[in-house]
Amino acid sequence: MTPTELPHIDPELATLAELGEARERSWVATSDRGLEVLRYDEGFEVLRHPKLAKGPAWPHRLDIMGITEGPTRQQWDRMLISVEGAARTHLRVPLSRLLRPKQVEALRTVARQVVDEILDEIEDPTDVDLMQQVCWKLPARMYCHLVSAPFSQAETVARLSDSCVAPVLTADLSRRQEHIDAFTEIFDFVQEHIDRRRSDPGDDFTSVMIEQQEAGMLTEQELLEEAVALLIASIDNTVHQSALMLGELFERPELLNRVAADPALVVPAVEETIRFRPRFGTIFRLATEDIELYDRTVPEGTWVFVSVRAAQRDPRKWENPDVFDLDRTKTAPLMFGNGIYNCLGQHLARIEIQELTSALTERFPNARLSKDRAIRDTNAVTEVTELRANLVAS
Description:
By secondary structure, the protein is of the alpha+beta class. It has helices at residues 16-25, 40-48, 57-64, 70-78, 85-98, 101-105, 108-120, 130-135, 137-147, 154-169, 176-199, 205-214, 220-250, 253-261, 266-276, 308-311, 346-363; strands at residues 28-31, 34-37, 52-53, 128-129, 282-287, 291-293, 296-298, 303-307, 368-369, 374-377, 382-386, 388-390.
């Protein structure tokens, strides 16, 4: 198939059906912004390709927001999410030591305790705003536990994460100043917390990062920026993937009943939601030089977008991919990236979502949505804007 014969799509408007039609014609489509990878195996290869860089992606999003200069842009350009090569390795190692799977697994009991406390606070289980009363609270309180901050700060933590992440991921220009203001506030907030922990250290994440800085692994500025990155990344995405999980189950009483009756199905349910309804719709990379990718030459400077939504419904990988199926064999999702760019926080996010799902299905096996959930899909991410349920429906 020659380049002119490749399917051409509008990634902002293409439906799942249209992406599927293009996927059956070719592993890759063209768009006005670059190349769009639509199949699983090819997407997996793109995400781990050494000549396809992730670092430029976040600055590209900031460019779209019109944040091209000034203190906000200068700070973002120094942080882990924006750098490559030795600089990326230098900043990634300290965080990776905190978020190793075995270390994170030790937090499972804490996650369940936090979930139970949140559910205990629900006064009227017949009408629950799951977003505000549950989903936004869990990762914010878990972050507070990780860094030894009081739970009274959880609401502020959630607000700061959302204001720093959501406007950029959704390219919402109306929230540009909100992002800039929150990014300034979050540095002051985290610096105050670091100062408190430095004078009263413990075994929490912030104290360990301070030890790393004092051992010469990080500069003072890098310590602050790493701690800011930890806060920003800990909340927003987990909130929405949690809500997507609950929405998928509560819309399917027969599957909810299965999970409630068999706790072993909690993990498959979470993994199937990540496949079927991922928070991230697209992940993209920049070609740092001319490369050969399957049957194509990809010129230096080309943006290569992996359509997570399309690739995670690739019939070459899954039978009946448009069906939500609890009995699938586990397959690594594309949503968390791959190789040197894999998401460091994915293990913690999974534990939080699993424990939330486990607690809700155990305590409220008859839960049902009380109204249709409200979802905002952009090309980059899915946001759940409303999720209401009757947890004790008969």
